[in-house]
Amino acid sequence: QINAQRLWDSIMETAKIGGTAKGGICRLTLTDLDRQVRDWFVAACEEAGCTVTVDEMGNIFARRPGKDNSLPPIAMGSHLDTQPTGGKFDGVLGVLSGLEVLRTLKDTGYETNAPVEVINWTNEEGSRFAPAMLASGVFAGVFTRDYADGRKDREGKTFGEELDRIGYRGTEKCGDRKLGAFFEIHIEQGPILEDEDKVIGVVTGVQGMRWYEVTVTGFESHAGTTPMHLRRDALVGAARMVEAVNKVALAHPPLAVSTVGLMEVRPNSRNILPGEVFFSVDLRHPEDEVVAAMEIEVREAIGRIAAELKLEAAIEQVWDSPAVKFDPACVGAVSTAAKENGYSHREIVSGAGHDAAYMARVAPTAMIFIPCEKGISHNEVESAEFDHVAAGANVLLRAVLEYDNR
Amino acid sequence: QINAQRLWDSIMETAKIGGTAKGGICRLTLTDLDRQVRDWFVAACEEAGCTVTVDEMGNIFARRPGKDNSLPPIAMGSHLDTQPTGGKFDGVLGVLSGLEVLRTLKDTGYETNAPVEVINWTNEEGSRFAPAMLASGVFAGVFTRDYADGRKDREGKTFGEELDRIGYRGTEKCGDRKLGAFFEIHIEQGPILEDEDKVIGVVTGVQGMRWYEVTVTGFESHAGTTPMHLRRDALVGAARMVEAVNKVALAHPPLAVSTVGLMEVRPNSRNILPGEVFFSVDLRHPEDEVVAAMEIEVREAIGRIAAELKLEAAIEQVWDSPAVKFDPACVGAVSTAAKENGYSHREIVSGAGHDAAYMARVAPTAMIFIPCEKGISHNEVESAEFDHVAAGANVLLRAVLEYDNR
Ligand SMILES: NC(=O)NCCC(=O)O
Ligand SMILES: NC(=O)NCCC(=O)O
Question: Which segments constitute the Peptidase M20 dimerisation domain (chains A, B) (predicted)?
Answer without folding.
Answer: 205-307
